[in-house]
Amino acid sequence: MTGLVTVLGSGAMTNTINGIVDSDVMLVIGSNTTETHPIIGLRMLAAAKKGSKLIVADPRRIKLCDSADQWMQQRPGTDGALINALCHVIIRDELEDKEYIAERAENFDAFKESIADCTPEWAAKITNVPATVIEEVAHIFAKADRAGIYYTMGITQHTSGTDNVCSLANLAVITGNLGKAGAGLNPLRGQNNVQGASDMGCNPTFFPGYQRCDDETARKKFAEIWDAPITDKPGLLATEMGDAIMEGKLAGLWIMGENPILSDPNSAHAKKAFEQLDCLVVQDIFLTETAEIADVVLPAASFAEKNGTFANTERKVQRVRRAVPPPGDARDDLSIINMVSNRMLGNRHGGYQGTTDPIYHTVPPLASDVFSEITKCWVAMEGMSYDRLEEGALAWPCPDTDHPGTPILHESGFPRGKAWLSAITWDGPAENPDDEYPLVLTTGRVLYQYHTGTMTRRSEVLENSAPSAYVEMNPADAEELKLADNEMVRASSRRGSIELAVRITERVDKGIVFIPFHYKEASANLLTNDALDPHCKIPEAKVCAIKVEKM
Ligand SMILES: Nc1nc2c(c(=O)[nH]1)N[C@H]1C(S)=C(S)[C@@H](COP(=O)(O)OP(=O)(O)OC[C@H]3O[C@@H](n4cnc5c(=O)[nH]c(N)nc54)[C@H](O)[C@@H]3O)O[C@H]1N2
Ligand SMILES: Nc1nc2c(c(=O)[nH]1)N[C@H]1C(S)=C(S)[C@@H](COP(=O)(O)OP(=O)(O)OC[C@H]3O[C@@H](n4cnc5c(=O)[nH]c(N)nc54)[C@H](O)[C@@H]3O)O[C@H]1N2
Ligand SMILES: [Mo]
Q1: pTM (2 decimals)?
Q2: 198-220, pLDDT tens digit by residue?
Q3: Ligand nearest, relative to CA of residue 153
């Protein structure tokens, strides 16, 4: 949920997955696409085969590097400098799309001024990427007719996450790559319905449809639709809640479908906070580490056991249909919410009068009722209905019932009129290596496991494919520490310590190590830093300082 910031309207792909094969150039930055979005990864490989140039920017030699025309191996946390230098070269060599900028962007002069000193030589010192490679990549990108940018957590999980995304937006705008096929700014979203969750306002600053809670007119509109008063005080973001509990400002929490005891950076701090709550409710399909310390556990139904819609990363809303009934007393999430709110309302409006259907275990209002309310709340989905979705998925905006949906955003302009080119100064990560903690740790995922493993570690085939935690380390570092491949080591940061096997590999550069965060027996988040991006409050899961010791 914390994943992506809202730029240019919302954090979704501006373009389509199938359209990737139409690109002339793909810049994949901070996304291990073949492992984390395998289907999209296949499209990229197909595009590369067709002649599209693939540029990868990643501190690790990920699989995509094998098919790449250029690989920029930047140090973790230096993307801002790298992207500014790409923009610098493009403008220095007059490769920017002048017509597009004049027509569709503002603040160009101030932006140009802000990157005047961001030479490739300057960036090479910060990033470790040779200046000549930065120049070459800038030329390939700017000269392409259709260049698409694809990014994920390598870009966003930093204290500079918002800045990084804005810098990528600058790059797309000055090269005229928004609003046409095979191009665009494309955050690949992580979960099956994280897009739908943010579209529906699972964020304290927004109502459904990115309508702001601090906007008086929006508040009035929703107070009317929901027939209830609405406060003008914004809520807390998930990453702000730990501190709020510690300060005594938050006494109860109802967690649905998250396992923060393993997934929150600096998770020992998170756990301490949760243990202080007066009341912790966890609603999950399995008894997770977080559910184990809960006062109440509500057993939920999985995706295959319920009806509704999911919105995917390319803004496509699609129907989900129950294939099997939920086991035992488990109920779909909506029914659980209905049952609780029914009791909370004390039958105000006569309550929902919901009876539990013995076969389907659903309590009204049903997912279809909720969907028709959505279409009344947000103009971008006003033209959708379950009937239309029977014919196939629709991409928002879809403002009326004969509108075909909008696969590519910004074809005729931007929601705010013109695109704002922001002046971004690169600022390093919150924690840098020193004598005591000399290694830079970055964390992430492997193909066979999903996050905290509550689901994938219960599957024998997946678990056997990636059964245990490890730390990837360059041979030069391993030699200094006199480590043999697969030897058990202790990894420690200022926040905690874990024991795991070392995997000696050229995949990472000297001074950089990588740990997947899937394994509770060696949880990477005991080490990570919970420093937050000041704008969207995403934690810096991609950079912290650690040491590794022989045991
Ligand atoms: N198999 C599998 N697939 C998944 C998931 C899963 O758990 N397992 N989770 C899903 C979810 S919710 C999400 S959000 C996505 C995440 O998808 P990704 O973001 O692709 O996954 P990560 O492994 O977190 O990180 C991506 C890449 O960022 C690189 N990286 C590390 N530090 C930096 C840096 O400072 N700069 C740059 N540019 N790159 C850096 C890493 O080397 C890695 O290759 O995956 C989704 N798909
Ligand atoms: N160090 C480090 N930490 C990270 C990251 C990183 O790259 N590095 N990535 C971050 C990112 S991008 C993400 S998205 C988070 C993920 O963090 P979490 O969301 O906490 O991780 P999951 O293991 O996916 O937990 C989802 C839970 O939902 C349950 N579930 C599945 N389906 C349903 C359902 O239909 N209903 C209900 N009620 N429950 C359901 C699952 O059983 C599981 O327990 O981790 C974050 N933490
Ligand atoms: Mo995510």
Answers
A1: 0.96
A2: 999 998 999 999 999 999 999 99
A3: 1
